[in-house]
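Agenda item 2: iron/sulfur cluster complex prediction
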Amino acid sequence: MTESMIIQLIAVNCRYSHSCLALFYVRQQLERHLPKAQTRFRQFTINDPYYPTLLRISTPETTAFFFSVYIWNHAYLHRLLTDLHQLRPQTPIVLGGPQALVLREALNFQPTVVDGEIEGVKASFYTDLREGRLQIDYQCTPGSSFRSPYKRDDFCRQLKNRNIYYESSRGCPFSCSYCLSSVGRGVVNRDLQETRKELTAILRHQPQIIRFVDRTFNADGGRALAIWRFLSASHAESPATSFHFEIAPGLFNEEMFEFLEGLPAGLFQFEIGIQSTNNETLKAVNRVMDLKKASTNIRRLTAMANIHLHIDLILGLPHDTRQTFGRSLNDVFALGPHYIQMGLLKVLPGTTIHRRRRQFGLMAAALPPYEILATKWLEDKELGRLFWLGECLEAFHNNRFFTTFFNYLRQIDEDILFFFSELSDFCQKRGFFQLANTQALLTETLVEFTARYPGAALIREVLLYDWLHAGGRRPPPCLQPVDMKGARDYLWHHLPDEVEGLFTQRQRHAFFKKAIFQRFSVETLKLAGHNIKSSQPEAYAAFLPVTTGLLKHQETRVILKE
Ligand code: SF4
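Presented output:
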């Protein structure tokens, strides 16, 4: 029967740019065990129109449908599988992934579930599939060896313009009680030589980004450093590729810092799970972290300014009150990361926290993704307020627009929970969350919101700097009036024919034509990171049409006023 077998591997991703690593592993194993079967890879997103997706999938010649189930595609798959089964009741449906068992319980029929890593399923699974007598359940032996499932063709087809996911190790050495990765046991590391070989093959296709899905990439420091060194050395062959890692900030050593310091800006991105800085909370969720060491290391990474830093906090963990959550937010904000994600706790069936949910008074949504609704320490209304605060943080903080403004808030030691609570209320009253978050709207909102601050004039100037630094040309009405033409004319007449580091006599005309000039207080320029040794209260900034640094800001030069 294998000659005529057509197996559809169907990925339903969150976004178009995502891809589904698990299904590539399934294809690899199917090709190994059933070499004559045809596998067809299909990729959709949860935002795709439903009926056309169903039509594309439900082709009658299909021998079996395979899906990988996650909390983000659970609802879409629930609907899709129900109708697919109505249309093709005789065709087996096979589910894998962390939510496969949960989805099956919710369905009105019994698809086959492969529970665990596909490499660990018994050979009888493939025989049963070939013979058309699949059972309901197949358990997999954990800890099986695995290798990269990608083929050369994938990069110009299924993976074209998408994130490439890669795992150099599987499993996590930690046991956070809310995480499904803590349910499996042990860590399996790939052979380093093999890893290098596989990465070389991937890099040949010059992908935009490779996301390492290793749950704690630097759990083994020596190994992490060896892979980092290899990737950095490969940079010349694939200069447009960046690499994303989930790392534990407490597990860095001097050798790692020395290496990381020399990296070009933007080559690496680190995602760092802090979750909470409340010790009682961390203990309750079985999370091991030396907070002091983690903070010191994150500060060092921030100061290096060449790695994009994303920090995660979880809202709704046991023992976290508004006050302790606010402390976590303030602690994390003070470290100066580029991105702070405030995610709601998801009480996932199968995790320890789910088993202890009554003890912690956790009320969670009944359906995936099982977001927290209230806890013993945060009633629903309070949790809701913190959620909107998180949306506000996402809109204003997690972009490249207001770096100087947030430096200012750090410098005046602003209580960031209070700041964002108030800003969130202000935004709610103005219907902000229903509008498109353009840089102009965000700037206008901040100017209005901070108008009652004692430092309002300085803030307005800081926001003007940020506007120009982020590449905006004509400032919005809320930042007017500005006299950029006056600044240019003044400098044109007062600067010598040649200024070292700015222009030669021949370049002078072109420099004045391309750059934008504006006068700022020295205080603003210092907040923006310019090291000015001048007793003058003001200086000029020239914003050049060249992007620079990690956040692709305009290259900016300060010209001291005589
Ligand atoms: S949250 Fe991260 S560190 Fe904790 S068990 Fe899960 S993957 Fe490991």
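Discussion summary: The longest strand covers residues 538-548.
Owner for follow-up: CH.
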